[in-house]
């Protein structure tokens, strides 16, 4: 199963992807 660290790592990647998508939409 997922450990807390796995969940944090995945969350960080999700946030990074969302941030990149927002930057692309803004430009």
Describe the protein:
This protein has 27 residues and is mainly α. The protein has one domain (1-26). It is built from 1 helix and no strands. The chain has one helix spanning 4-26. The radius of gyration is 12 Å and the shape is rod-shaped. The termini are far apart.
Number of domains: 1
Helix content: over 70%
Number of strands: 0
Uncertain regions spanning at least 5 consecutive residues: none
How confident is the prediction overall: mean pLDDT? 91
How many angstroms separate the termini? 39 Å
Largest sheet: none
**What Rg, in angstroms, do the CA atoms define?**
12 Å
Summarize the entry for a quick read.
The chain is an all-alpha fold and 27 residues long.
Features:
mainly alpha, rod-shaped, 85% helix, 27 residues
Give the helices and strands, then pairings.
Elements: H1 4-26
């Amino acid at each position: 199963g997922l450990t807390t660290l796995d969940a944090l790592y995945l969350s960080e990647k999700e946030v990074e992807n969302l941030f990149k998508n927002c930057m692309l939409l803004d430009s």
